[in-house]
């Protein structure tokens, strides 16, 4: 058992570091940035009074603690990000250690060593729990380390925060393990787990907007309000959280199943469909293999776009709360108009989602290569470059279609939100137009990152994580570069910094450069992979 857990950690070390390190850097840098922007605790308290009744911040982060200090501000703002991004990490890890390993044949190799059928699942569950605990421990350590500069970060509340974050991730890890048992494929398990994560976020929003205190217990993203670190420091809810974790992990550990079997077999009965002979071509094959994930990303992105841009009016009303809020938000994104700031924030967030979808679709060729599907396609007489070209084109076209559908909807809900807040007295067409282009301006980064993903696969199957690394670094630079006062050359290094429609003028040079980078890197990756051996696991 111990050996298997060590193997799981060793083989997923790069994956874990790629997620944990950026999040810990964000957590470590945020208190200092907040202190630099607001050196007086009175200014932070004033900001708290300004934003406590705002619907936009309520939906995004929940109820602000009262009184709002440095420590409570950081935890209030970052709990959601740590929960969402950490939840994605732990769900993907849980699926990787269970259903994905079964698909790759690794679990079968492990079982032939003589261990019981339950041992790999138990080892996977323990690995998920240990990873969650490590994440929470690092959060507690980083929070307490801020004590050397800001006295509010005391030991006991920092430890309570770390335990709460670890419990939150452990819940999502249990959801990922359950999803792997309930679904027939790793892709379906990931979609199920991430959908559950989205549902818990919706529960948290409903609980905060309509003040349903009992509903916060059903969403780990709302547990910060229950624990209330640095204020009430409620310890007793941890017992309830541990019980919830035990209930989530119990079915996975108590029941065994055969390799390839799944508990939801009745819900996935095979269906016979008539397919024309024209459907049996490489393009339609790749579409049939990728259509579920493409449609899932498209519908999710459009729904998120509608929800986010519907908050523009509420967020813009923060301009009436005083100069402190304006100065802080201007420092965050380097602008002075709150409507422009939030339109850019929402547009960049949608760009990150579109880029995630494009990278995952482009990297489908990596999955086909490692599982042997690509070998079968190549040996049938097709050119070796075609799968990469088809996957890159699918990623780009899917991103373009999603952006074209989301952009007018974003403009419409922005116009509605501004009119609902200010009435007909204000001219909303300019802000709605900015929202429209804020979405469409994300297409060049999508094309560039999809092409870079193809280049990584073309060089080596082991370089695929680099595509995600570039996306993560660009997102951090764009969102926090102004706040952390990064130099201009570093701010311009982000792929999201070259939007064609800037505040002052329209500049197509950067956008066209990104499109060119996407085309060139995709062509280079296609050429490089056609000259190397295929890797099958």
UniProtKB/TrEMBL annotation:
Organism in which the protein naturally occurs: Corynebacterium canis
Transmembrane stretches, start-end: 78-98, 119-147, 159-180, 192-215, 235-256, 293-312, 341-366, 387-414, 434-459, 466-486, 506-528
Lineage per the UniProt record: Bacteria, Bacillati, Actinomycetota, Actinomycetes, Mycobacteriales
Protein name: ABC transporter permease
Keyword presence, Lipoprotein: no
UniProt keyword terms in alphabetical order: Membrane, Transmembrane, Transmembrane helix
């Amino acid at each position: 058992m111990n050996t298997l857990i060590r193997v799981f950690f060793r083989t997923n070390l790069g994956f874990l570091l790629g997620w944990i390190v950026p999040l810990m850097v964000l957590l470590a840098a945020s208190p200092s940035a907040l202190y630099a922007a607001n050196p007086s605790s009175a200014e932070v308290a004033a900001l708290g009074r300004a934003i406590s009744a705002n619907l936009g911040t309520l939906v995004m982060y929940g109820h602000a603690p009262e009184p709002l200090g440095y420590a409570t501000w950081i935890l209030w703002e970052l709990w959601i990000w740590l929960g969402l991004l950490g939840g994605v990490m732990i769900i993907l890890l849980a699926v990787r250690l269970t259903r994905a390993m079964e698909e790759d044949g690794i679990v079968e190799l492990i079982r032939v060593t003589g261990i019981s059928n339950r041992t790999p699942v138990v080892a996977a569950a323990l690995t998920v729990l240990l990873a969650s605990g490590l994440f929470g421990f690092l959060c507690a350590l980083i929070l307490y380390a801020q004590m050397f500069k800001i006295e509010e970060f005391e030991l006991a509340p920092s430890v309570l925060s770390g335990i709460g974050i670890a419990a939150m991730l452990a819940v999502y890890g249990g959801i990922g393990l359950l999803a792997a048992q309930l679904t027939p494929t790793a892709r379906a398990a990931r979609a199920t787990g991430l959908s559950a994560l989205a549902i818990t976020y919706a529960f948290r929003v409903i609980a905060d907007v309509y003040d349903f205190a009992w509903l916060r217990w059903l969403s780990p993203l709302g547990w910060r309000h229950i624990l209330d670190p640095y204020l009430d420091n409620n310890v007793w809810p941890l017992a309830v959280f541990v019980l919830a974790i035990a209930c989530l992990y119990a079915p996975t550990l108590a029941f065994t199943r055969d390799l390839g079997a799944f508990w939801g077999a009745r819900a996935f009965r095979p269906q016979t469909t008539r397919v024309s002979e024209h459907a049996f071509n490489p393009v339609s094959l790749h579409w049939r293999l990728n259509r579920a994930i493409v449609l899932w990303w498209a519908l999710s992105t459009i729904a998120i776009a509608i929800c986010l841009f519907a908050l523009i009016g509420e967020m813009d009303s923060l301009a009436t709360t005083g100069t402190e809020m304006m100065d802080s938000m201007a420092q965050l994104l380097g602008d002075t108009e709150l409507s422009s700031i939030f339109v850019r924030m929402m547009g960049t967030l949608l760009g990150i989602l579109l880029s995630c979808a494009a990278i995952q679709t482009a990297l489908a060729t990596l999955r086909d290569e490692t599982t042997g599907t690509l070998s079968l396609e190549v040996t049938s007489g097709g050119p070796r470059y075609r799968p990469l070209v088809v996957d890159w084109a699918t990623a780009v076209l899917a991103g373009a279609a999603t952006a074209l559908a989301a952009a007018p909807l974003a403009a419409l809900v922005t116009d509605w939100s501004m009119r609902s807040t200010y009435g007909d007295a204000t001219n909303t067409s300019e802000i709605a137009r900015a929202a429209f282009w804020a979405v469409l301006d994300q297409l060049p980064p999508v094309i560039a990152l999809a092409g870079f993903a193809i280049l990584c696969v073309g060089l080596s199957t082991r370089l695929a994580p680099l595509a995600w690394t570039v996306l993560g670094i660009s997102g951090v630079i764009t969102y926090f570069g102004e706040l952390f006062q990064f130099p201009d050359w570093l701010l311009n290094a982000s792929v999201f910094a070259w939007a064609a429609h800037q505040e002052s003028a329209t500049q197509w040079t950067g956008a066209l450069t990104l499109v060119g980078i996407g085309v060139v890197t995709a062509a280079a990756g296609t050429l490089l992979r056609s000259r190397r051996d295929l890797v099958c696991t």
